[in-house]
């Protein structure tokens, strides 16, 4: 059916994309990672009340027989439902003027400048004369051969074969029966016995949790906020686990307990203390609890009970959808961490439970699916990195992998085939290895503890998806090193490992582990600006790791003012450490220490660090960049630039560059280049868990398993002044009363307009102290430094300052 439109006189507004907004992509500079490409553009208007039309053609003139036309597209991003043949293409879009958004399909339609489509007919409401704006700028892109094929079914096709009965979350009717049969034959099947004993039965005789009370004077208090969301997490555990246990076993006792919990929570005030605007973490958990309860107990409820639960569930889902799609507009500005997470924690399970019953559920679920296909993840790219760091990778992945599994099982949409999900297991493997502590970046509620158990479980999930045996090895090591933490708030308040284990073992085959003996010694996550260098990760007693960050994401969200920072972990112990404590987000420890450059193994200029306050424009502008990173002839090298990170706080900065050499997998040489418009001092910072022994131009650290010899080999402004303290500057002492002190080295230069600082770091086993001899040749225009270890001499050249 043709859909003819006449070209309107209306000009198409094409705003220039800023650092917070989605970009115009793809273009001639885009290196595609999957097929079909993902198309994004800046919205033509602030409100999303008109649809778009988009064309893809093999020629820039968009001849009818060479052009595909897609309309109506409700938002400024789109993933086609077909794979493109390798070659060169052009694309453009227009706004459909006064055309209400149609939520059910992206029809291939005919317009006066395009061809008649053959894949979709469109609804009657679309088959009317309409107008469109002027066309956008035409952009060119190239589809190379051999890309992963990841088309997305259109909105009109996604749910055609989905079941209208319940349950739908995790298992359908046939899957439920198969699980019940398997358990009847073997009560230990997939860990069912453990799930029942530890995650179902404890809730059967417990009184339902009362509705959380308001904060005193409705002012948020961190301990009460945390207790509120933990209470609501327990609500999720009780309803979900009792419902599953009761349905699988047909146990009336468990079913009755599940109904009691469900109806109790459905009666809570949807506009009260567990609403999205009052406490979003509590709201997410209550909405998910209602979704699982409504879905799994649907056939156990009478019509009045169904209506009561459905009404509460719909309103709570609407609150989240309204925030995500209308207020936060993460399709315009994708960096709202909680809003993006709520796609998976709320919209997917809740909309799946309501699908075929509430019209809005399909609209909201379509939005989430389209977002996952095109814009996810805003915190990384095809390398699989995560700019906010491994702890927020864990939080994000925990919910998104659960949502991916729900969608795959119910609708057959498999996002795990996307390059990001195929590779993102590499991120924790390289930057958060199983034996490392205090060796990463970003906000971390587990700071100081072993690698979080949930991180291990998630990497196992990715082992099941990809078959990667190193990922399975990671899981096994983490499970060994982090036992007994299931009850810690950062685990118990977020996930239940017995449920995780049941679902994974049911859905995925066991993958055999393999030690990462042949892993890359240097891993560069270009998408987020992190570089990890490793020696012998397979053996904690021999493992040496240095991690450096210099990211285009600056200090936005849960990232810190730490561009060009490094951490060093060796022989089982953090040496150049990420110090301090996680008290609470927004505490003085968080604001004045953890987020600040002064807490990092980095540089201050005139006592001032990079921008770390709460202006998001300046956060996003305070960026760094990895310019070069490679492993060659047994040595690693990385060069990073952090000039922009200091630009707003040190206006006279011209250049800040850090080079790190990892030589012979044994020692490190760090070369810092700082150029300024006027003379100023530089403070070279190093942080440790143990006291440092200072002597002349060197310092020594002796820990429990490992030590480190540090030497300032060369400083262009003359000898440095070394000092250390065990204080956390600017932090309220009450927040760390009774906690172990950490130690902070400052090596300060004399004022100068240009600085070159060369630092030698030699890690060693505590029972095998060592040093690396060196000498300097400065006879010409450069400084030539020679370092010798195990009879092998390496040369590094540094330019002089004049």
From TrEMBL:
<feature type="region of interest" description="Disordered">
    <location>
        <begin position="107"/>
        <end position="133"/>
    </location>
</feature>
<dbReference type="InterPro" id="IPR008929">
    <property type="entry name" value="Chondroitin_lyas"/>
</dbReference>
<dbReference type="InterPro" id="IPR013783">
    <property type="entry name" value="Ig-like_fold"/>
</dbReference>
<dbReference type="Pfam" id="PF07940">
    <property type="entry name" value="Hepar_II_III_C"/>
</dbReference>
<feature type="domain" description="Heparinase II N-terminal">
    <location>
        <begin position="127"/>
        <end position="485"/>
    </location>
</feature>
<feature type="domain" description="Heparinase II/III-like C-terminal">
    <location>
        <begin position="520"/>
        <end position="757"/>
    </location>
</feature>
<dbReference type="InterPro" id="IPR012364">
    <property type="entry name" value="Oligosacch_lyase"/>
</dbReference>
<dbReference type="Pfam" id="PF16332">
    <property type="entry name" value="DUF4962"/>
</dbReference>
<dbReference type="InterPro" id="IPR012480">
    <property type="entry name" value="Hepar_II_III_C"/>
</dbReference>
<dbReference type="InterPro" id="IPR032518">
    <property type="entry name" value="HepII_N"/>
</dbReference>
<protein>
    <submittedName>
        <fullName>Heparinase II/III-like protein</fullName>
    </submittedName>
</protein>
């Amino acid at each position: 059916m043709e859909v003819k439109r006449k070209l309107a006189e209306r000009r198409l507004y094409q705003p220039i994309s800023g650092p917070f907004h989605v970009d115009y992509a793809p273009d001639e500079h885009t290196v595609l990672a999957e097929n079909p490409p993902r198309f994004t553009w800046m919205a033509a208007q602030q409100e999303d009340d008109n649809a778009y039309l988009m064309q893809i053609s093999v020629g820039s003139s968009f001849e009818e027989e060479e052009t595909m036309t897609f309309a109506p597209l409700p938002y400024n991003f789109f993933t086609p439902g077909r794979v493109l043949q390798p070659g060169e293409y052009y694309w453009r879009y227009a706004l459909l003027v006064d055309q209400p958004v149609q939520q059910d399909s992206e029809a291939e339609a005919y317009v006066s400048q395009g061809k008649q489509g053959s894949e979709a007919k469109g609804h009657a409401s679309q088959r009317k004369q309409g107008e469109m704006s002027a066309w956008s700028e035409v952009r060119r892109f190239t589809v190379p051969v051999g890309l992963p094929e990841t088309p997305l079914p259109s909105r009109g096709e996604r749910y055609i074969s989905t079941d209208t009965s319940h349950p739908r979350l995790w298992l359908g009717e046939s899957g439920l029966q198969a699980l019940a049969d398997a358990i009847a034959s073997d009560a230990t099947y997939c860990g069912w016995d453990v799930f029942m004993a530890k995650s179902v039965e404890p809730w059967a005789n417990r009184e339902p949790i009362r509705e959380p009370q308001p904060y005193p004077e409705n002012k948020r208090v961190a301990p009460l906020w945390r207790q509120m969301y933990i209470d609501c997490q327990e609500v999720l555990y009780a309803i979900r686990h009792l419902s599953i246990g009761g349905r699988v076993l047909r146990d009336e006792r468990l079913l009755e307990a599940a109904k009691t919990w469900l109806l109790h929570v459905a009666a809570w005030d949807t506009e009260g203390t567990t609403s999205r605007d009052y406490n979003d973490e509590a709201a997410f958990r209550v909405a998910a609890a209602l979704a699982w309860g409504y879905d799994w107990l649907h056939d156990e409820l009478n019509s009045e009970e169904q209506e009561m639960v459905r009404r509460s569930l719909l309103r709570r889902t609407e609150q989240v959808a309204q925030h995500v799609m209308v207020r936060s507009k993460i399709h315009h500005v994708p960096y709202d961490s909680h809003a993006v997470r709520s796609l998976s924690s709320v919209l997917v399970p809740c909309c799946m439970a309501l699908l075929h019953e509430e019209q809005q559920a399909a609209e909201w679920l379509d939005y989430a699916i389209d977002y996952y296909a095109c814009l996810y993840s805003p915190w990384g790219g095809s390398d699989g990195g995560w700019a906010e760091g491994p702890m927020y990778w864990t939080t994000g992945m925990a919910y998104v992998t659960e949502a991916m599994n729900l969608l795959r099982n119910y609708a057959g949409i498999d996002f795990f085939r996307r390059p990001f999900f195929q590779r993102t297991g590499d991120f924790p493997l390289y930057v958060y290895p199983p034996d490392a502590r205090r060796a990463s970046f970003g906000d971390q509620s587990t700071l100081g503890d072993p690698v979080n158990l949930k991180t291990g479980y998630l990497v196992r999930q990715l082992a099941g998806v990809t078959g990667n045996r190193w990922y399975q090895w990671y899981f096994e090591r983490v499970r060994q090193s982090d036992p007994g933490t299931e009850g810690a708030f950062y685990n118990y308040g977020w996930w239940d490992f017995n449920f995780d284990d049941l679902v994974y073992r049911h859905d995925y085959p066991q993958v055999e582990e393999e030690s990462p003996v042949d892993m890359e010694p240097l891993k560069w996550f270009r998408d987020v600006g992190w570089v990890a260098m490793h020696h012998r990760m397979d053996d904690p007693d021999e493992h040496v790791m240095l991690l450096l960050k210099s990211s285009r994401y600056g200090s936005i969200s849960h990232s810190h003012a730490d561009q060009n920072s490094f951490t060093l972990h060796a022989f089982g112990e953090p040496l150049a450490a990420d110090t301090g404590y996680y008290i609470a987000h927004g505490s003085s420890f968080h604001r004045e220490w953890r987020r600040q450059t002064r807490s990092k193994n980095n540089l201050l200029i005139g006592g001032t660090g990079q921008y770390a306050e709460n202006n998001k424009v300046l956060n996003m502008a305070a960026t760094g960049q990895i310019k070069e990173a490679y492993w060659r002839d047994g040595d690693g090298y990385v060069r990073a630039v952090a000039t922009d990170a200091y630009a707003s706080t040190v206006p006279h900065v011209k250049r800040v560059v850090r080079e790190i050499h990892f030589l012979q997998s044994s020692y490190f040489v760090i070369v810092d280049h700082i150029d300024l418009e006027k003379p100023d001092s530089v403070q070279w910072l190093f942080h440790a868990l143990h006291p440092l022994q200072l002597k002349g131009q060197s310092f020594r650290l002796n820990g429990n398993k490992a030590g480190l010899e540090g030497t300032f080999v060369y400083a262009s402004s003359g000898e440095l002044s070394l000092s250390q303290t065990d204080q956390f500057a600017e932090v309220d002492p009450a927040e760390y009363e009774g906690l172990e002190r950490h130690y902070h080295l400052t090596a300060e230069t004399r004022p100068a307009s240009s600085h070159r600082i060369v630092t030698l770091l030699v890690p060693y086993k505590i029972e095998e102290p060592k040093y690396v001899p060196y000498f300097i040749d400065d006879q010409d225009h450069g400084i030539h430094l020679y370092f010798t270890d195990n009879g092998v001499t390496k040369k590094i050249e540094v330019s002089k300052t004049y």
